[in-house]
């Protein structure tokens, strides 16, 4: 991969190692969402039943806007022994070996670094990147289309654990043409966005990015380190990220359809409370 700052050139070798991954069909996504919602329904019913099993000293009811009922139930405070038992049951009983493994992992953990950026991907071919670093914004042009970057929250390489905060926008020429036609129907104007100049790249086959300093801006080495790490990881794992992105989109559409076909049913909201002792 080539990274350019005006006339300066940095070279970084990138290898591809794609694994076998599968996309999620609409029917598979619907089945997964139906399973999730069925589990949630059972879990919610169990929680309500547990709350109602506790005897109430008094109860107030109030109608909610969605048709459900808010039930405020005053109950006796739990005994200290029960509280201690519950806390003890939640504590992990680690062995010496497990503690040693955790300390070993903690000692070898890489320092976290943040990458904050927004990306506009034009026609699935080129990315316009705005990278934030120490209060400055750096403009970058890359011939790597980061269409699936929103599927990535963090990644790790030899240097650091990178926490990624990214906003990705896709700009498609066909969709913009449709918007332009629709705008004219309503006696309005819509102008497609100007595409970046791809002639600045030295190659159409090798991945490259170019940092475009603004007003004699000096670009520090950490900016190149972030861009190198991001490009390297994305190129090596692009296929997996594409599938992860497709999974998210398929599940989002399946959840939308589920909500449409299964409008929410009003449920009672149960709240148990008690007064603390004044002793």
* Radius of gyration of CA atoms, rounded to a whole number: 27 Å
Strand order of the largest sheet: 2-1-10-7-6-5-9-8
Helix-strand string? EEHEEHHEEEEEHEHE
* Count of beta strands: 11
Distance between the termini: 70 Å
State the share of residues found in helices, binned by percent.
Answer: 25-40%
Instruction: List the total number of helices.
Output: 5
The poorly predicted ranges are 5-20
Sketch the major β-sheet.
8 strands, mixed
Can you put this structure into words, describing what you see?
The protein is of the alpha/beta class. The chain has five helices and eleven strands; from the N terminus they run E-E-H-E-E-H-H-E-E-E-E-E-H-E-H-E. It has a domain at 2-15 and 110-262. The chain is extended, with a radius of gyration of 27 Å. The relative contact order is 0.22. Strand 1 (2-5) and strand 2 form a beta hairpin. Helix 1 crosses helix 5 (221-261). It starts with a strand and ends in a 6-residue tail after the last strand. The strands form two sheets. Strands 2-1-10-7-6-5-9-8 form an eight-stranded mixed sheet. Strands 3-4-11 form a three-stranded mixed sheet, with helices on one face. Keywords: Signal. Residues 1-19 form the signal peptide. It comes from Puniceicoccus vermicola. This is DUF4384 domain-containing protein.
């Amino acid at each position: 991969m080539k990274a350019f700052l005006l006339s300066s050139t940095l070279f970084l070798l990138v290898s591809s190692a794609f694994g076998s991954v599968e996309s999620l069909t609409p029917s598979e996504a619907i089945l997964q969402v139906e399973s999730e919602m069925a589990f949630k329904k059972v879990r919610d019913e169990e929680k309500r039943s547990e709350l109602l099993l506790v005897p109430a000293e008094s109860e107030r009811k109030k109608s909610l806007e969605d048709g459900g009922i808010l039930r405020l139930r005053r109950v006796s405070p739990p005994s200290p022994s029960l509280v201690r038992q519950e806390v003890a049951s939640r504590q992990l009983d680690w062995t010496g070996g497990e503690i040693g493994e955790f300390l070993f992992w903690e000692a070898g953990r890489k320092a976290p670094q943040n990458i904050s950026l927004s990306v506009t991907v034009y026609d699935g071919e080129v990315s316009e990147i705005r990278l934030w670093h120490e209060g400055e914004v750096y403009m970058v042009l890359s011939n790597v289309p980061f269409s699936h970057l929103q599927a990535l929250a963090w990644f790790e390489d030899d240097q650091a654990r990178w926490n990624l905060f990214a906003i990705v926008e896709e700009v498609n020429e066909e969709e913009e043409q449709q918007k332009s036609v629709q705008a004219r129907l309503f006696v309005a104007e819509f102008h497609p966005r100007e595409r970046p100049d791809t002639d600045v790249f030295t190659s159409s086959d090798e991945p490259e990015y170019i940092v475009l300093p603004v007003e004699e801006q000096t670009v520090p080495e950490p900016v190149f380190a972030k861009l190198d790490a991001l490009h390297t990881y994305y190129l090596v794992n692009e296929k997996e990220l594409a599938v992860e992105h497709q999974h998210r989109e398929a599940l989002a559409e399946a959840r939308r359809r589920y909500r449409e076909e299964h409008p929410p049913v009003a449920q009672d909201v149960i709240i148990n409370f008690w007064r603390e002792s004044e002793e």
